[in-house]
Amino acid sequence: MIIREIAEIEDDRVMDFSRLTECQLRSRLRPEDARIIVESPKVIKTALKSGHTPISILTERKHIEGDAKEIIAIADRMTGGAGIDVFTADRGVLASLTGYTLTRGVLCAMRRPKENSMPEVMEMISASDDSACIRVGVLDGVCDSTNIGAIFRSAAALGLDALLLTRDCCDPYSRRAIRVSMGSVFLLPWGWIDSVDDIREYKFKTIAMALRDDSIGLDDPRLKEERRLAMVMGTEGDGLAADVILGADYVVKIPMSHGVDSLNVAAASAVAFWELVAKRNN
User: Fold this and answer.
1) CA distances from 136 to 162, 170, 202 (A)
2) How distant, in Å, are the alpha carbons of 33, 167, 224, 254, 275 from that of 268?
3) Are 132 and 227 spatial neighbours (Cβ–Cβ below 8 Å)?
4) First CA to last CA across the chain, in angstroms?
5) What pLDDT, on the 0 to 100 scale, is given for residue 104?
6) Residue ranges of the alpha helices (H) in 99-212?
């Protein structure tokens, strides 16, 4: 490792951590320069062990021989012993640089992972046996990074095969989404789709999660009999568009009590994943 002391927040060597916006980090004009910021030791180790390439580390000085020690060792092995820059300073300097006290005192800049197309995701999860049971989630216009991260965490924990996102969803590789997912964005296959209808060419039956008088319950036995099932979740404010609901094979609701009209999309997805994926697998 190469230890580099940071004395001021204007230091250009740490602009990845301090001054680049999410859009600039994504670097669509030069994809080879695109990067992500991963924070907290557990999440960083998940990303590294999943094969993602580290660029540099920012950490409080006291963590170099503590929480950051294993991270630095893994990064060193991944670079063939060449090592990476480890930028460090006291907590006060780092807080002024990043705008907040670091989560567990460690950040890591990494090369942005390749994004998968829908055909690539389908190839990753499809079994040779056409009768295999496959469950995917489809997020339509979910634009809050906290919700995206929470949905990824639930999807991975409860055994979903993949997530597919329309292009107006929040970036799963945004800093907050990565953190909230606890690194699940690096573990679960996912990809972009242009429309919810794209899933149909892969012979999935679709579930539109919506509160309507004609909705069926999550425990309807017909749902568990489907071999390929796609659970479609809508945007935080308005839910699913009318045409998406009309085009679905099933419209499904989670019964509400005490006058509550709906659940947050992240909470609703966890309930659906448990009922239609985890319970079936167990």
Assistant:
1) 5, 18, 12
2) 36, 21, 18, 8, 11
3) yes
4) 45
5) 57
6) 118-125, 145-157, 175-181
| pLDDT grade for 127, boundaries at 50, 70 and 90 | low
Amino acid at 65: E
What pTM, to 2 d.p., does this model score? 0.89
Tokens, residue 239: 């839910």
At residue 233, the pLDDT reads 94
Most confident of 16-25, 44-53, 127-136, 273-282: 44-53
Cross-strand partners of 37: 109
Structure tokens at 270: 């966890």
Whether residue 190 contacts residue 163, with contact meaning beta carbons closer than 8 Å, is answered with: yes
Structure tokens at 165: 């996102």
pLDDT digits (tens, 9 = 90+) for 156-176: 999 999 999 999 999 999 999
Token representation of residue 49: 């062990």
Residue 272 confidence (pLDDT)? 94
Q: Which segments of 149-264 are extended strands (E)? A: 162-166, 190-193, 205-209, 216-217, 228-233, 250-253
What DSSP string runs through 74-120?
A: HHHHHTTT---EEEEE-HHHHHHHHSS--GGGEEEEEEPPPPEEHHH
Q: At 188, is the secondary structure helix, strand, or coil?
A: coil
Residue 23 phi, psi dihedral angles, 5° rounding = -65, -40
